[in-house]
Write a structure and sequence with these properties.
CATH superfamily of the largest domain: FAD/NAD-linked reductase, C-terminal dimerisation domain
Number of helices: 7
Distance between the termini: 35 Å
Strand order of the largest sheet: 4-5-8-7-6
Shape: globular
Order of helices and strands: EEEHHEEHEHEEHHH
Helix content: 25-40%
Largest sheet: 5 strands, antiparallel
CATH class of the largest domain: Alpha Beta
CATH architecture of the largest domain: 2-Layer Sandwich
Number of domains: 3
CATH topology of the largest domain: Enolase-like, domain 1
Radius of gyration: 21 Å
Structural class: alpha+beta
C-alpha cells in the first residue's frame, strides 16, 4: 500500500505489487497495526523476568524464566488469538498442578478472519512449503463447483491444500468462502494426525455439504478430483 487518499466518494488506495501500480476506490480502509502485550507495571523485572520485544518469553509449558510464574495469551507473544490463549491456559494450569500436559503445536493452530467471505488457514503457505520441502503438491477446489455453496448463493471462494514430503502429508490449508472458519478445524485435525492427501481424499464427506470441497481439493493435489 503506497498511498491512501480519503474523499467524499470514498477512499482512494494506491497499491504496488509484482504487476505494477494499481488504484482502487473503496468505501473504507481498515488498518490493523498488530498487538502488543500489556506487560508494563506488573513488576516483572523485580521477579527476575525480562520481557523481550514487549512480550514475556515462555517455554512449551508457558513457564517464564521464573518456573513458578506462568504467562499466557497476548503477553506471551504470537499468535494473538483467543483460542490460543485458552489452550495455553489449559497447558499452564495442568503443568502447575503437576500433570503432564501435551505442549501446543503452534503450527497446527488455525487462524480465522470473520469477514465476508470468511478466511481461515492453518500451517504453511505454498511458497514456504516449496522452500522447505523437495516435493510439494497443491490441490484446489472452487466453491462454484460445490452444490451446497451454490444453493446458498455463496459460490465465491475456494479450498487450497498443500501437501509435502515423500508421503504427501498435509502441511498447509487455506480456505476463502462461506463457513471457512468452521471447516478449518477438520484440516487442523488432519495436520495434527499427519494425514496425507490420499487419506483425506478417501474420507466420504456427506453430500451436499461445504466440506466436500476439502475432499475434492485433496484429490486435486494428485489430479484425481472429479467435480470440477
Amino acid at each position: 500500500m503506497q498511498e491512501v487518499i480519503p474523499g467524499r466518494a470514498g477512499v482512494q488506495v494506491r497499491l504496488e505489487d509484482r504487476k505494477g501500480d494499481q488504484d482502487l476506490t473503496v468505501e473504507a480502509v481498515l488498518v490493523a497495526v498488530g498487538v502488543t502485550g500489556n506487560v508494563d507495571g506488573l513488576g516483572l523485572e523485580a521477579m527476575g523476568i525480562r520481557p523481550e520485544k514487549g512480550f514475556v518469553p515462555v517455554n512449551e509449558y508457558q513457564q517464564t524464566s521464573v518456573p513458578s510464574v506462568y504467562a499466557i495469551g497476548d503477553v506471551a507473544g504470537p499468535p494473538w488469538l483467543a483460542h490460543v490463549a485458552s489452550a495455553e491456559g489449559h497447558v499452564a494450569a495442568e503443568h502447575a498442578a503437576g500433570k503432564n500436559p501435551r505442549p501446543l503445536r503452534k503450527e497446527t493452530i488455525p487462524g480465522c478472519t470473520y469477514c465476508r467471505p470468511e478466511v481461515a488457514s492453518v500451517g504453511l503457505t505454498e511458497a514456504i512449503a516449496r522452500e522447505r520441502f523437495e516435493t510439494v503438491n497443491v490441490g484446489r477446489f472452487d466453491f462454484r463447483a460445490n452444490g451446497r455453496a451454490l444453493a446458498a448463493g455463496e459460490g465465491e471462494g475456494f479450498v487450497k491444500l498443500v501437501f509435502a514430503g515423500p508421503y504427501g502429508e498435509l502441511v498447509g490449508a487455506h480456505i476463502l468462502g462461506g463457513h471457512a472458519t468452521e471447516m478449518i478445524a477438520e484440516l487442523a485435525t488432519a495436520m495434527t494426525l499427519e494425514a496425507t492427501w490420499a487419506e483425506i481424499g478417501s474420507i466420504v464427506h456427506p453430500h451436499p455439504t461445504w466440506s466436500e470441497a476439502v475432499m475434492e481439493a485433496a484429490l486435486d493435489a494428485r489430479g484425481r478430483a472429479i467435480h470440477h
